[in-house]
Each structure stands twice: as structure tokens, then as C-alpha cells.
Amino acid sequence: QVDLVESGGGSVQAGGSLTLSCVGPRGTFSRYAVAWFRQGPGKEREFVAAITWGGGSTFYTDSVKGRFTISRANARNTAYLQMDSLKPEDTAIYYCAAYEAIGVVSVSQSEKAYNYWGQGTQVTVSS
């Protein structure tokens, strides 16, 4: 079992910024690819961004490119999602997810690949 704990959600006005954090298991966090997914009101959960085990490659859904940045600090067993220029349509519960993928240079954008999930953190953007 891999525990992931998100934090950093909150309420902001459109155009504002938030940084989400995802804390994973100490000592083994670097073995996992990490992604952020979100589920808005009345919507299905969707992929937002992902990062490979070593942080060498990142991937984003088109709607957040240029506004969101995913990163990780394996020494602190933490992944981040920096969200800038937030829009009301970014309102959702944001989930951190992971699967073991050490040495792999790509990362899945399908939630089916991820077998470890956090509890989610609410992000609300008002207009």
C-alpha cells in the first residue's frame, strides 16, 4: 500500500494561483510516476498532468498547458502542481495518483494505470 496525501487546495478568484502538494512514501517515492487528475462538478475524472519517476519528462492536458506546472522533489518525497492563471472551469477535486515506473521515460495519462490514489483536495475558482 502506498499512501499519498494531497494538500494546498482552497478558494481563489479567477487569475489567481495555487500550489498543490502530494506527499508519498519516504525512501521509495522516486520509483513512482506521479500524476494529477481532477473531477469537476457533474463531470468525469480527467487527466491533468504527469511526471516521470525522475522528473525528466512532463505531460499536460491541453487545457492547462502554459498555466500549470508539475514538478517533484524526490528527496522530500513530494510532487507539486503549480496552478497559475486559474479559471472557473478549473474548479474540481484534484487527486494525486502514482504507479511504479522506475526507469520508464514516458508516463500514462490513463487513470487505469494508476493503482495508488490520494483522498483529493478541493480547488474552487470564482469569477
Q: What's a concise summary of this model?
A:
The protein is mostly beta strands. The protein contains no helices and eleven strands.
Category by helix and strand content = mainly beta
Please state the average pLDDT score.
Answer: 96
Uncertain regions spanning at least 5 consecutive residues: none
Helical residues, percent: under 10%
Q: What is the makeup of the main sheet?
A: 7 strands, mixed
Q: Helix count?
A: 0
Question: What is the molecular shape?
Answer: globular
Which strand-content bin applies to the residues? Answer: over 45%
Radius of gyration: 14 Å
The first-to-last residue Cα distance is 39 Å
Q: Care to count the β-strands?
A: 11
* Succession of helices and strands: EEEEEEEEEEE
Task: Characterise this structure.
Helix content is 0%, strand content 46%. The protein starts with a strand and ends with a strand. It has 127 residues and is an all-beta fold. It is globular and about 40 Å long.
